[in-house]
User: Fold this.
Amino acid sequence: MIKILDSKKNNFNSSLDNLLLKRKNKIKFKSNIVINIIRDIKKNGDKALLKYEKKFGKNSIIFSKPKEIQKQIKNLDKKVKKSIDLAYNRIFQFHSKQKVKNIFYKDKLQNKLSYKYMPIDSVGIYVPGGTASYPSTVLMNAIPAVIAGVKRIVMVNPRNRGKQNSGVLYAAKKCGVKEIYLVGGAQAIAALSCGTKKIKKVNKIVGPGNIYVTAAKKEIFGETGIDMIAGPSEITVLGDRYSNSDWIASDLIAQSEHDELSQSIFISKDKSLINKVKKSLFCQLKKLPRRLIASKSLKSNGILIYASSDQKIVETINQIAPEHLELYIRNYNNILNKIVNAGAIFLGKYSTEAVGDYLAGTNHVLPTSGSAKFSSGLSVYDFYKRISYINLSKKGIETLGPSVITLANFEGLEGHAKSVELRIRRK
Assistant:
């Protein structure tokens, strides 16, 4: 049964925290296995990569043939192509608004300080493909990189039932991705990070994956950049007496069908609505193709919350810090500015999260497991590095130098002090 919490109960906050923590603890990364895979690929390169592909992916082909790619794209349903085109245009349009601005500053001492944005040289995009394929993942990860000016974009995408997905290939073509490898899992992340003779290493790796992919990204971070340590998807929906219970239930189920560890939470001040949503969940689940996954997700991680006031609603949402938040209430502006922890917020009854997953235009790579308290979703900014430039004048070093010497000596770093002393004009 899906869990129900009452915000009026004295132990509400601790009960909610315990449920959120319990789910986090279930998300265990297979670190030992992954560490061995990374070490092996670092040492034995392509030989090790192919070994793990055969073992885990039942795949002995690493490279995509251009003719095969063209053939698969040609056979793609025209409606799917049209939808990918629409998604591409909307995502590109929104992300192109994310302009960066270099900073140049000259102070009264004629010291010149600059801060410049530089695109990362190379990026690897992981696109899942073991049990399903996601053209949307290609678009969400590649388009911001293209806009930022990344020179080399590499896509790794494991085969699904012996084939690559034609939608994924078409999306990659739309984004200008030409370097594609048929590899997946921790071995794909290791190859991108360490490099092999056939796969040149990249500077940063982005994109979602299973627990092995996530564990691998966690292990290689430091040698290679990553977007985030992301867990299974999640949603929190807020409803009121004007909300449609069937719509709410369908949004909760849409998130639950991703993964057994996905989390769907519903909050309302209306107890009758909570009961209606609960009934609708069970009715809709019966007709869902992925009902076993969604049912397990709702049973293990789903929560229905009765909130006694708007203040408690805001506090609860900020406590959860959901990846996706739907404010399916009539007067959402009354609380909107008080919500500070969320990956993406969907406003009003027509703003279903599913549209955000595909072609609203905003990015669907978002912080999970409460990390929205300190991080944000993927954007163009993630594909830049920033460099500071410092050009001190003669007057600048002579004016600022004495204070630097004082601070350096205070910290016991006499070498620092000496390097400044040597540059100050002797009187």
Q: What stands out?
A: The two ends are 83 Å apart (CA to CA). The CA atoms of residues 405 and 418 lie 8 Å apart.
